[in-house]
Amino acid sequence: MLGQRWRKPRFIKRPWLRWALGIGFIVYMIAAVLTVEVNWARVYEGLDRGAQFVLAFTSPDFTSRGGDIWDGMVESIIMTVAASVVGIAISIPIGLGAARNIAPLPVYLICRGIVAISRALQEIIVAILLVAIFGFGPLAGFLTLSFATIGFLSKLLAEDIEAMDRVQAEAIKASGASWMQWINYGVQPQVMPRLIGLSMYRIDINFRESAILGLVGAGGIGATLNTAFDRYEYDTAAAILILIIVIVMALEYLSGMIRARVQ
Q1: Cα first-last separation, the chain
Q2: Which residue in 215, 209, 199 sits closest to 244, CA to CA?
Q3: CA-CA distance, 111 to 80, in Å (whole number)?
């Protein structure tokens, strides 16, 4: 309350406690690091391969396996776009249902459960499971990225809806608008810029994830990259990584332009 004298927390009054916690944390970190087993002989052998891989970036090979690189890159792009479109389309109704201020309690609980399940399972785990079900190929990657997009976008969209300005939404509702009209004119204008920005960000993430999912057989450029590493073709691997970096930078630039225009 105002007028009451501010009192220092007991933690501040006891400097020895701070020192004890600090020393305890340092001791714990040292003990944790010492428990990590390191094969220094293996590390020494790997330094030479690491140096070869780094030097490969000075002379990347885009031609020797140009066909495989092109096919893998096209597959990743198609998988990314398709998964993003499907995931975003499904995320919108789930995000609306997961917002407590506009959804009834039963719908809210169901949608929040879907979001929690999607966010609880990491993409690699889902990809391994789907590869076991559907076999190797882009179908498993497409389903994995769609599933991940739902958890990511639905949660952030729901939080944005819950934080929106209620005055505008209540004014639309007070005019006698239906529920759909209320969503279109009271909710959608407030969250649309955020939704577009998040969607572009998710497309960026999905492309990068497609390269990782290929390592477990879920299609995309990751499979080609994994093959290049297995064959110690570091120049081809460097070419693939350069292409991934260029595409991610292009997506980042495009995303910035779209967000700037929307906002």
Answers
A1: 41
A2: 209
A3: 24
